[in-house]
Amino acid sequence: MSNVPEGDRSPERPCSKKLKTLIVDDHPASILLLQDMLAEHCECFAATGGPQAIALFDRAIKEAEPFDIVLLDIEMPGMDGIEVLKVLRESERHWKKHNLLFGESKFSRIIMQTASDSPQDFLGAYLEGRCNGYINKPFHKKELLAKILAEG
């Protein structure tokens, strides 16, 4: 039985349980593509915006099963990826401070996705929110997997 809430992943894309991964992108087609690319290596959860991502992220920590990886789109309507990144990192600090981030859990590895060629987008995400890396769109499966597995 899967612990993925209905609607959080494509039903035809069963994922392994190696890396618990949150995909945050405002384009459902991008989410489906990422789920397909990651199916062999990840248990995929999805959010189409900042508030949904934050809720899933906090719930995972409360359930003592934090995400290993978050793939976070920088350019989203409403809350952009950098704003979401800041909230996710603050949430981790809160849970860690109150000893509610359990066991050997470490902070999630957050990889920003961007269609922009501007290094300032990544620099802003790193300096303001402490992301762990970035990947430029469009990317290929081999490149994505290398990035995710190298981050581990």
Topology (SSEs and partners):
Layout: E1 19-24, H1 28-38, E2 42-47, H2 50-62, E3 69-73, H3 81-97, E4 109-114, H4 119-129, E5 133-136, H5 141-151
Parallel strand pairs: 1-2, 1-3, 3-4, 4-5
Helix pairs in contact: 2-3, 3-4
Explain what the structure shows.
The chain is of the alpha/beta class and 152 residues long. The chain has a single domain, classed as Response regulator (Rossmann fold), CATH 3.40.50.2300. Helix content is 41%, strand content 18%. It has 5 helices and 5 strands; from the N terminus they run E-H-E-H-E-H-E-H-E-H. Helix 4 links the parallel strand 4 (109-114) and strand 5 (133-136). Helix 3 packs parallel to helix 4 (119-129). 33% of the residues are buried.
Short structural summary:
This protein is an alpha/beta fold.
Which labels suit this protein?
globular; 5 strands; disordered N terminus; alpha/beta; Rossmann fold
CATH topology: Rossmann fold
Proper CATH architecture: 3-Layer(aba) Sandwich
Briefly note the structural class of the backbone. alpha/beta
Estimate what percentage of residues fall within beta strands.
15-25%
Name of the top-level CATH class: Alpha Beta
What is the mean pLDDT?
Answer: 81
What is the succession of H and E elements? EHEHEHEHEH
Q: In terms of quaternary structure, what is this?
A: single chain
Helix content: 40-55%
Poorly predicted runs: 1-16
Supply Rg: 14 Å
Main β-sheet, spatial strand arrangement: 2-1-3-4-5
Overall tally of structural domains: 1
Largest sheet: 5 strands, parallel
State the distance separating the first and last CA atoms: 26 Å
Query: Based on CA inertia axes, which overall geometry fits?
Result: globular
Name of the CATH superfamily: Response regulator
Beta-strand segment tally: 5
Tally of DSSP helical segments = 5
